[in-house]
Design brief:
Helix content is 22%, strand content 37%. The chain is an alpha+beta fold and 201 residues long. It folds into 2 domains: 146 residues, Immunoglobulins (Immunoglobulin-like); 27 residues. The termini are far apart.
């Protein structure tokens, strides 16, 4: 009887944890797909609905290419030398119980989830397909308030949303030195020809 009661209590506890985790949702805004030219900086805004009874504190965010997961692997863009930088955790984002927090992406204000710097040598038509993963901790009281002594209720939980970066603009490649020399020679020849025509007349 005691064993059955213990198993039931553990089961209800686990169900409670699962239910709490399932009530937190992430939506990327305006969508998960962003685009830009080589060398551009793009990024995502967010809407996070904290339907749990705990305070939510964001601990990090990642762009994970393919099926990467920060719990098991190192997450990073897969498009050449592209980079990702977190904003949402660095801003100390905290969401109270039952609150939906939203913020648009603005690279100059470091707002939104984070920014993706597209490799300057990328070419039109390339893309990086993966996901934005946000990790967070839960607290029974405000983690920045005076009443949070050992109040953490759960940690290293994840929110995931599909994300894609598309390269749509022309490559910003610099002309080869040989090309510049040829253009300079052509220009000089045109100047000489013009001068001769003027002298004849």
């Amino acid at each position: 009887m005691t064993r059955t009661f213990s198993m039931t209590a553990v089961g209800l506890f686990l169900i409670g944890l699962t239910a709490s985790a399932d009530t937190v949702t992430l939506t990327l805004t305006p969508s998960g797909t962003v685009s830009g030219s080589p060398g551009d900086t793009v990024g995502w805004g967010y809407s996070i609905d904290n339907g749990s009874s705990d305070y939510l504190l964001v601990s990090n965010s990642y762009f994970c290419a393919g099926t990467e997961d920060p719990t098991f692997t190192t997450c990073a863009p897969s498009l050449g030398a592209s980079t990702y930088q977190d904003f949402i955790a660095n801003n100390g984002t905290e969401i109270a119980p039952g609150v939906t927090a939203a913020q648009s992406f603005d690279a100059s204000a470091n707002s939104g989830v984070g920014e993706y710097g597209i490799d300057p040598s990328a070419t039109t038509g390339q893309s990086d397909i993966g996901s934005i993963v946000i990790t967070y901790d839960l607290f029974t009281a405000d983690p920045f308030g005076p009443n949070c002594n050992f109040c953490q209720d759960g940690g290293d939980m994840e929110l995931t949303a599909a994300a894609e970066v598309q390269v749509t603009g022309p490559s910003s490649a610099v002309p080869e030195p040989g090309t510049l020399a040829f253009l300079g020679f052509t220009f000089a020849a045109l100047v000489v020809r013009r001068a001769r025509l003027v002298n004849r007349s």
